[in-house]
């Protein structure tokens, strides 16, 4: 059966969405009382990229929502910028920020584009970041206050995600060093941040449920499967260690409400080798346990999987943030070395294009975590150097279409075998600012000229419309 026929057979409510994140699209970082995030001064100092005007979504959201509707999308992922609501992360709410999000949500709902809203997407308030960000447990209290405010204020929103990609934030901040505060292989901070973010998620879910609101809540993890490059027991062990650190620790905490002995054996091995430690306070696990059965849905972001071999030298890495193919490397002491699989194509940023990994992950987590209910693929897409030709030529991003098609194929295969995926959000709706790569790594269905802010259609948008429209 063709892809279109299989899509036609999907249930009516299946979600076809485009994804965004506040700091990557809104721009307007200094207007209407917005506070600074951990990125503002960092990007200025670095001098490579500016977050303004990004895709100017703060002013052009209406145009983007109309485009979404026109191109068959029935949903959009957006995030609320914590610092538009509470400029310092706490204190008195900023009414101009509140009003902006009411306008945005209204525009979405008036156009039949359902908003799926994250409370935190990598944009910690600068004030809280300086006090330790997620490593400081006070941050959790402020986050809960912010969430409570949003739940009570934005009653028009019925699909909430607490935090986007807990691992990416912790890993980029403390292992890979390409997000502020740019630590390399600070394993203690990376594992502690993960635990503290999980605790924040759990408290917010427990709060949401206690308020008896009519909506749904969950969180978003990015998952990467990890395979031994050559199947030896040592390489398999390296794959297991990396899988535990990148996926299993967080999945256990979210959906089992505990870190199982199997997981902790791997995590403790990794911590010991790196002289690192994790602190879990009395009562933390009770909160995780309570929340573990209460997630209404799970947002799964998937881009790539990894191939590894065993590695016992010192940790070192090089991050490819320029799109020069073949320049990334990653060696994690006592865990493993990430290597290239010659049979697997890669993007210019060295991300493996491996849709089978998504299928394997979907099957594995459904088996291992019965508390995972409905799954939405909340991000999936291809970073590519799209070429603008002229005003009248549709931008040819065929590699992106291939990428999306191959991944949707795998999702449908998993669905036909009982995995309850109910929606797919392409990353990203329009071209936007990429945290550590700036503006030449584009993902959008719609091309953005960052000088003029004009939107242009890409072939992937036309392809996506055909797909989504088959269900109408
Ligand atoms: C996800 C994030 O990790 O991947 C997005 O949720 C991000 O915010 C996307 O932009 C793609 O990553 P990158 O680094 O290629 O922009």
Automatic annotation (TrEMBL):
Q: Which gene encodes it?
A: lacG
Q: Which residues form a coiled coil?
A: none
For this UniProt record, the keywords arranged alphabetically read as follows: Glycosidase, Hydrolase
Tell me the NCBIfam families matching this sequence. lacG (TIGR01233), PRK13511.1 (NF010036)
Q: Which family is it part of?
A: Belongs to the glycosyl hydrolase 1 family.
Catalytic-site annotation from UniProt: 379 (nucleophile)
Reaction(s) catalysed by this chain, per the record, are: a 6-phospho-beta-D-galactoside + H2O = D-galactose 6-phosphate + an alcohol
Gene Ontology MF, one: 6-phospho-beta-galactosidase activity
Instruction: Decide whether keyword Cell membrane is in the record.
Output: no
The name under which this protein is listed is 6-phospho-beta-galactosidase
Keyword Ligase assigned to the entry: answer is no
Q: Write down the EC number.
A: 3.2.1.85
Which pathway, per its entry? Carbohydrate metabolism; lactose degradation; D-galactose 6-phosphate and beta-D-glucose from lactose 6-phosphate: step 1/1
Give a Pfam family name: Glyco_hydro_1
**PROSITE patterns, per the entry:** GLYCOSYL_HYDROL_F1_1, GLYCOSYL_HYDROL_F1_2
């Amino acid at each position: 059966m063709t892809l279109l026929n299989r899509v036609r057979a999907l249930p009516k409510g299946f979600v076809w969405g485009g994804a965004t994140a506040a700091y990557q699209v809104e721009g307007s970082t200094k207007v209407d009382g917005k506070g600074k995030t951990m990125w503002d001064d960092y990007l200025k100092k670095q001098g490579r990229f500016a977050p303004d005007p990004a895709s100017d979504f703060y002013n052009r959201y209406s145009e983007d929502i109309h485009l979404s509707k026109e191109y068959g999308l029935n949903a959009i992922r957006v995030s609320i910028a914590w610092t538009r609501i509470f400029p310092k992360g706490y204190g008195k709410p900023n009414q101009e920020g509140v009003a902006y999000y009411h306008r945005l949500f209204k525009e979405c709902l008036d156009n039949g584009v359902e908003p799926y809203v994250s409370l935190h997407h990598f944009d910690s308030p600068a004030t809280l970041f300086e006090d330790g960000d997620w490593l400081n447990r006070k941050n959790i209290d402020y986050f809960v206050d912010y969430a409570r405010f949003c739940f009570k204020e934005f009653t028009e929103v019925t699909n909430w995600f607490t935090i986007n990609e807990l691992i990416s934030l912790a890993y980029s901040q403390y292992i890979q060093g390409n997000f502020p505060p740019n630590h390399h292989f600070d394993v203690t901070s990376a594992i502690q941040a993960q635990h503290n973010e999980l605790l924040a998620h759990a408290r917010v879910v427990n709060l949401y449920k206690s308020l008896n609101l009519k909506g749904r809540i969950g969180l978003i993890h990015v998952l990467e499967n990890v395979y031994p490059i050559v199947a030896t027991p040592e390489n398999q062990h390296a794959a297991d260690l990396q899988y535990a650190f990148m996926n299993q620790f967080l999945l256990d905490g979210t959906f089992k409400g505990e870190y199982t002995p199997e997981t902790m054996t791997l995590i403790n091995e990794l911590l010991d080798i790196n002289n690192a430690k994790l602190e879990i306070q009395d009562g933390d696990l009770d909160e995780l346990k309570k929340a573990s059965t209460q997630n209404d849905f799970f947002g799964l972001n998937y881009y790539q999987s990894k191939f590894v071999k065993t590695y016992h030298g010192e940790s070192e890495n090089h991050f490819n943030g320029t799109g020069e193919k073949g320049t990334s490397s990653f060696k994690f002491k006592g865990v493993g070395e990430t290597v290239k699989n010659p049979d697997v194509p890669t993007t210019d940023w060295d991300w493996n294009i491996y849709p089978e990994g998504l299928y394997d992950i979907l099957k594995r987590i459904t088996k291992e975590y019965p508390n995972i209910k409905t799954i939405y693929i909340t991000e999936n897409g291809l970073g590519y150097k799209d070429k603008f030709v002229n005003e009248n030529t549709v931008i040819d991003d065929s590699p992106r279409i291939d990428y999306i098609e191959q991944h949707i194929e795998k999702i449908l295969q998993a669905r036909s075998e009982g995995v309850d995926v109910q929606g797919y959000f392409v990353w990203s709706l329009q071209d936007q600012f990429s945290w550590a790569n700036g503006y030449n790594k584009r993902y959008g269905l719609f091309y953005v000229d960052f000088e003029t802010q004009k939107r242009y259609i890409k072939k992937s948008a036309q392809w996506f419309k055909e797909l989504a429209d088959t269900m109408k």
